[in-house]
Every structure is written in structure tokens, then in C-alpha cells.
Specification:
The chain is built from 9 helices and 14 strands. With about 500 residues, it is α+β, with helices and mostly antiparallel strands. It has 3 domains: about 250 residues, no CATH class; about 80 residues, Helix Hairpins, CATH 1.10.287.130; about 140 residues, Heat Shock Protein 90 (2-Layer Sandwich), CATH 3.30.565.10.
């Protein structure tokens, strides 16, 4: 599934489906629990009422049991598991003290005498059958509720069990409450009163059926709405994609993708894309200008050198060997500058050797024996930085070359510490750099003295190379005004860790 819209719709649908199923189960469980609690309360009220009557010495066969229309089966069982009384029309029961629905004679010790009304065929002397005793032991094995006192009802909470009963030929599930009571003759019985679970089952079934019908429809609605909303949300993305495809096909970097009026992520994506296109357009333009300027700069010394060689071939006595050598050196320097710029643009990482900048400055200055203006050095010893020795030497050489071209009588080089940085400064006493041109001079092939002869002014790459190298080393290169009124170039590099 490669479509973001389809994945979003499917994901949202699955999340909603899981949430609905979990919520539905929780609702069903809570509803069932509440309805069972209501059934327990009904059964408890009936059991407590009958137990209270028995505690007031009302015989078991004389208790006011619910009639058959009440759908509340009742069973009264003595301590020996004998059934003393049941409600009318009760044909079968489970989940109580006995499965028997036939009342039996009470034991002689219970204070009763004679058969229970309507049950002349009950076992003699009130003994329960083996089957009834087995049923009592099976249905109520954990009845450890203490017997109440004489003429009292058990003060403990009633026990609740689930079972079934058949009343007037209709079988149903019930919740039974068991309450103990003792009359004044010290006969203890357990009253089992049931409340039907039909309401609970019907309600849970109705809600379950409604969920089975409604949940699929709701899931379909959620999936459809998510599909439509996602489609609407991703429409600007498709516009960005199609416009980017058109830009790629046409190679026209002046075009821009449409920006939505919203302030969401898609709008930020469009703005970022346009900013990227602008940066790419500027980069391509700089590249084109670089190639054009490089071609122009290379054409001049090559043309001069060719002219001199052609003149020398025709008239050897007119060959300007020093001029040809100078043009060759200039051509070699220009090629080296272009090669270094290409490596910097390709992301070449500088070396990480430790360099003593004071020693580097003294060594470079000592080798410049042919400078027009001698350079003075004021460097604090022991200040180290990490980087490429060759590239940093190139930066210092370019700054000194620039100072030599503009200085009148003095060039000063200094090295000092400024916080966590080591600062290498080159100053001259020339005319300086106008404030509004102090950033432009670091652009490639830019020279402020265009009227000056190219042979004296260079190709305009030295300062651009110096700033690129400074940035590659994590430092900065800035220009300001020196105390002597000329230009002050400061190269700030991170100091090497101790």
C-alpha cells in the first residue's frame, strides 16, 4: 500500500475499530454488572422478607411465598439439606441448597410435627433421601455462614449464586440470594430467593445486536471521512510534487511551488521547498558566474602567453621571456586557486593537526623576502589551533598578499587569544575597505579596484578562499578598520584543547 492517503485511512479505521470494540466490551460488562446487581437486590429483598417471617416463628409451609406470576422462585432448606418449602409452580431448580422441589417433613428435633401439607408421601420421620443430601452437598459446598441467634436473621451479607429454575414449564436463568434465619424453636433454615436475569440478558443482547450493526457502519463512515479529509489535506502536497516534477523536467529554477494559505505543516513544507529552490538557483547562478569568470581569467594569461610565444616564434629577438614566465606563474596560481575552491565546494574536510599560529606566522613572513613592504610580527607564543597547515598557510599568504597590494608603508601581523579563540590579524595602512563593501569583497572574482591592472590586482579569489577555509575550520574571517586607517583582517579560530 504505497498511498499515504490509503495508509492514513486504514490506520485511522483500525484505531477506531479497536477503540470501538474495547468501548463496546466495557459497556456490555458494565451494563451486565449493573443489571446483575439489580437482580441481586431484588433477590435479597425477597429472601430477607421470608427469613424475617421465619424468625418470627411462622412455619415454613405457612410463609407468604411469591405466587407463580411473580417469577421469583423460592426454596427453603434446613440444616440437614431438607427442602421445607418451595414457591408455587416450581418444577426444577439449580444453584441453591438442593435440587429437590418437593417439600419434606421437618426433623423431629426442629420442633415440627406431622407431614407438610400436600406431601403425605414424604419419607417417614422426616429423613431426607440420599439423593437430596447429595444435591445439597453439591449445590452449596462452601456455606460457612454462622447460624443466627434464636429468633434472628443472619446479619452477614447474603450469598449470591447463579442458577436456573423452571417455573410453570418455562426455564430461565436466575440470581439467588441465600439468607439464614433461626426461629425461637432454634430451627435454622436457609432461604433461597431468586430474581430473573431475563431483563439483563435481553438488555445486553439488545445492546450487543445494536453494536454489531452500528459498529461496522461507524467504521465505514470513519474510513470514508478519513479518506476524504486526507485527500483534501494532501492535495497541496500533490501540487508541490507536480510542480517540482515540472521544474525538474524544464530545469527552470526560477519557478516556485504553490504555497497554501494555511499555516500547517504542508504550508511550511512549501515555503521550505521554495527556499531550497531559491538557494539552488543562487548556487547554480554562482556556479555559472564562477565558470564564466574563471574562463575569462584563464583566457587573459593564456592569450598573453600565446601572443608572446607566437611573436617569439616569428621574431626570436623580440621574445619577452620574463613576461612569459610571469604569465605562466599567474596561470599556475589561478589553476591552483580554482582547484582549491573546487575541493572546498566538494566538502573536503581539513586536517586536525595542532598548529602553533605564532610559529606559523613567523615562518611564513620570513620566507616573503620579495615583499614591497616588510611585515612586522607581534605574536604570543604557544597559542595553538587545530586544522590543515597547508590551508591555514594559504589563508595567511592571501591576507599578506592583499595587504601588500594596498599598504603604503606598514603591514602588521599579530596573534592573540580572545576567550576560547585564537585571533590572527593582518593590518595595513592603506585606504581600507568601505563599510558597505566589507562583505562583498569575500565573493569570488570580486575586486573593488576594477581600473587597476589585472596583473597587479589578482583574480579576486584570495579573500574568497580565505573565508571558505576559515569556515571549514570552524572559525570566522572579518574585515574592519586598522588603527593606521587601512584594512584589518581578523581570522578567529577555536583554540586547541589543552
Amino acid at each position: 500500500m504505497r498511498s499515504v492517503r490509503a495508509r492514513a485511512a486504514l490506520g485511522a479505521t483500525l484505531v477506531v475499530a479497536v477503540a470501538l470494540v474495547a468501548a463496546g466490551l466495557a459497556v456490555l460488562l458494565v451494563l451486565r454488572s449493573n443489571l446483575i446487581d439489580q437482580a441481586d437486590l431484588q433477590a435479597e429483598v425477597t429472601a430477607q422478607d421470608l427469613a424475617s417471617q421465619f424468625a418470627l416463628d411462622v412455619p415454613a409451609d405457612k410463609l407468604e411465598l411469591p405466587d407463580s406470576d411473580d417469577e421469583r422462585p423460592v426454596q427453603i432448606v434446613d440444616e440437614d439439606g431438607r427442602v421445607l418449602a418451595v414457591s408455587d409452580q416450581l418444577e426444577a431448580i439449580s444453584g441453591t441448597g438442593s435440587r429437590s422441589v418437593a417439600p419434606q417433613r421437618p426433623s423431629p428435633s426442629a420442633g415440627g410435627a406431622g407431614p407438610v401439607a400436600g406431601q403425605d408421601d414424604a419419607p417417614a420421620d422426616g429423613a431426607s433421601t440420599d439423593d437430596d443430601a447429595a444435591d445439597a452437598a453439591e449445590d452449596d459446598p462452601d456455606d460457612d455462614t454462622p447460624d443466627p441467634g434464636r429468633g434472628e436473621v443472619s446479619s452477614d451479607d447474603p450469598r449470591f449464586t447463579s442458577g436456573a429454575a423452571t417455573v410453570d414449564g418455562e426455564r430461565a436463568d436466575y440470581r439467588f440470594a441465600a439468607v439464614k434465619a433461626t426461629n425461637r424453636a432454634q430451627q435454622t433454615v436457609t432461604v433461597y430467593a431468586g430474581a430473573p436475569l431475563t431483563t439483563e440478558q435481553d438488555a445486553v443482547g439488545t445492546v450487543r445486536d445494536a453494536m454489531l450493526v452500528g459498529f461496522p457502519l461507524l467504521i465505514v463512515v470513519v474510513g470514508s471521512v478519513t479518506w476524504l479529509v486526507t485527500r483534501r489535506a494532501l492535495k497541496p502536497v500533490e501540487g508541490i510534487r507536480s510542480e517540482m516534477a515540472a521544474i525538474t523536467a524544464s530545469e527552470d529554477l526560477t519557478r516556485r511551488v504553490p504555497e497554501p494559505d494555511s499555516r500547517d505543516e504542508v504550508a511550511r513544507l512549501a515555503r521550505t521547498t521554495n527556499e531550497t529552490l531559491s538557494a539552488l538557483e543562487a548556487s547554480v547562478e554562482r556556479q555559472r558566474r564562477f565558470v564564466a569568470d574563471a574562463s575569462h581569467e584563464l583566457r587573459s594569461p593564456i592569450a598573453s602567453l600565446r601572443t608572446q610565444l607566437e611573436v617569439g616564434a616569428a621574431h626570436p629577438e623580440l621574445l619577452d621571456v620574463p613576461g612569459a614566465v610571469a604569465d605562466t606563474v599567474r596561470l599556475q596560481q589561478l589553476a591552483a586557486d580554482l582547484l582549491l575552491l573546487a575541493r572546498l565546494d566538494a566538502g573536503e574536510r581539513p586536517g586536525r593537526s595542532r598548529l602553533d599560529l605564532a610559529a606559523l606566522v613567523r615562518e611564513e613572513v620570513s620566507q616573503r623576502t620579495g615583499d614591497r613592504v616588510p611585515a612586522s610580527v607581534d605574536a604570543v607564543e604557544g597559542l595553538e589551533a587545530e586544522g590543515s597547515r597547508g590551508q591555514l598557510t594559504r589563508v595567511l599568504g592571501n591576507l599578506l598578499d592583499n595587504a601588500q597590494r594596498h599598504a603604503r608603508e606598514a603591514v602588521a601581523v599579530s596573534v592573540r587569544r580572545d576567550g576560547d579563540r585564537v585571533v590572527l590579524a593582518v593590518a595595513d595602512d592603506g585606504d581600507g575597505v568601505p563599510e558597505d563593501e566589507r562583505e562583498r569583497i569575500f565573493e569570488r572574482f570580486v575586486r573593488l579596484d576594477d581600473a587597476r591592472a589585472r596583473d597587479d590586482g589578482g583574480a579576486g579569489l584570495g579573500l574568497a578562499i580565505a573565508r571558505d577555509v576559515a569556515r571549514r575550520h570552524g572559525g570566522t574571517l572579518t574585515v574592519g578598520r586598522s588603527p593606521a586607517g587601512g584594512a584589518l583582517f581578523e581570522l578567529a579560530l577555536p583554540a586547541a584543547a589543552s
